[in-house]
């Protein structure tokens, strides 16, 4: 390789690296702006209860997929840590649903806030060929409604969740 070709290759590589860095920066900036816009709409999440009764639906292991604003299944919530996927265990109690996530704080969904529990084909960046996402629609203390998505390791466990609350 001669010197002019080497210099041109290095310049092109540097320009490509700058372009990639710029695009990543813009994506991060967009995510932060979305979180700021949604922060007031989402408000604070319900506090964890001091005590709960015996589990109605035993712990189900799986993946917390994320939460979306109703009625848009692809408008992912970025406020707080609701937008990040995490391994999770979901348990149903008479007082509500506890979603314990690894690497993030737990989510408590009070029973009176739940409006629907159903299966979906997709939610916010996660699409499956069958009804593989358990979607819990609930109302936040701020009044906004969101869908929280959970993909169980064993899809057969969805029947227990669907029988419990409609």
From TrEMBL:
PH domain: residues covered? 42-164
Residue stretches spanning the membrane: 6-24
Keywords, A to Z, come to: Membrane, Transmembrane, Transmembrane helix
Q: Which Pfam families match?
A: bPH_11
Q: What is the protein name stated in its UniProt record?
A: Transporter
Q: Which organism is it from?
A: Mycolicibacterium mageritense (Mycobacterium mageritense)
